Automatic annotation (TrEMBL):
Keyword 4Fe-4S: no
GO terms assigned for molecular function: ATP binding; kinase activity; phosphotransferase activity, carboxyl group as acceptor
Coiled coil segments of this chain: none
Key word RNA-binding present: no
Alphabetical list of SUPFAM superfamilies matching this protein: P-loop containing nucleoside triphosphate hydrolases
Protein name: AAA family ATPase
Entry keywords, A to Z: ATP-binding, Kinase, Nucleotide-binding, Transferase
Pfam family, one: CPT
InterPro entries hit by this protein: Aliphatic_acid_kinase_CS, CPT, P-loop_NTPase
Amino-acid positions noted as binding ATP in the UniProt annotation, renumbered to this chain: 29-36
Length: 203
C-alpha cells in the first residue's frame, strides 16, 4: 500500500500488517522531519542492542567537491537535491555495509528517499533475506520549515521541498507524524511494532 499523508491526525497509524521481530527499522522522512530525535529515543525502547545509522553520516563523509563530480549529489540553492549515478554507486556501497552490520547487530536507519521508490528498492535488495520494518516519518511542511530555520545548519527550503516528496510511492508498514507529537510518543508507536530483534521471516 502506498503511503498517504497523516498530518493532523494521530501520532501514528499502521498501514500494513504487524511486523514481528525485524532486525532493521528504516525511518524515511524529509530533512527536519524529526528522524534523529525519534531514533535516539527508539533505540532505548527496543529490546536488546540496536545501532543508529544515519544517511547524514554518509553525506558528511563525502569530499567537499562531491557536488562537482559528474553524477554526484548536488544541493540546489532552493533546497532541492539532485542525485546521479556516482551518488547511487556510493549509496549502494553504504547500504551494503549497513546490511552487513545488521546481520550481526540490529539497526535503526535514518534516511530520506531522495530517489523515491527506486531508493526503497535499492534498500530491499541490500537487505534481502532480513526482516525490515518500514516507517514513514511525516511532518507538516510548515512545521518542518520552522524547525529548519531554528536549526540554522540546513539550506533553507530543503525541509519544505522534501516533506512530502520523499514519501511519494513508498510502501510503509507504519507511519508516524511528528508535527504535533513528541519523539517519545512516536518512538513508542514504532517500538510497539517490534517484539524482538530476531524475526523469522523476511519482508
Amino acid at each position: 500500500m502506498s503511503a498517504h499523508p497523516t498530518v493532523g491526525r494521530s501520532v501514528g497509524r499502521s498501514v500494513g500488517p504487524r511486523v514481528d521481530g525485524p532486525r532493521v527499522v528504516v525511518l524515511n522522512g524529509g530533512s527536519s522531519s524529526g528522524k534523529s530525535a525519534l531514533s535516539a529515543v527508539l533505540v532505548d525502547l527496543l529490546p536488546g542492542t540496536w545501532l543508529r545509522l544515519n544517511v547524514d553520516t554518509l553525506i558528511d563523509a563525502l569530499p567537499s567537491s562531491f557536488d562537482e563530480v559528474e553524477g554526484g549529489l548536488v544541493l540546489r540553492p532552493d533546497g532541492t537535491i539532485e542525485t546521479g549515478p556516482e551518488w547511487r554507486r556510493v549509496e549502494r556501497a553504504w547500504m551494503g555495509g549497513i546490511a552487513a552490520v545488521a546481520r550481526e547487530v540490529a539497526v535503526v536507519v535514518e534516511d530520506g528517499f531522495l530517489s523515491g521508490p527506486v531508493a526503497q528498492q535499492r534498500w530491499r535488495e541490500a537487505l534481502e533475506g532480513m526482516q525490515v520494518l518500514w516507517v514513514g516519518v511525516r511532518c507538516d511542511p510548515e512545521v518542518a520549515a520552522a524547525r529548519e530555520r531554528d536549526r540554522g545548519d540546513r539550506v533553507l527550503g530543503m525541509a519544505r521541498a522534501q516533506a512530502l516528496s520523499v514519501h511519494e510511492g513508498i510502501d510503509y508498514d507504519l507511519e508516524v507524524d511528528t508535527s504535533g507529537s513528541s519523539p517519545k510518543e512516536c518512538a513508542a508507536v514504532v517500538a510497539a511494532h517490534v517484539s524482538t530483534p530476531d524475526g523469522p521471516n523476511p519482508r
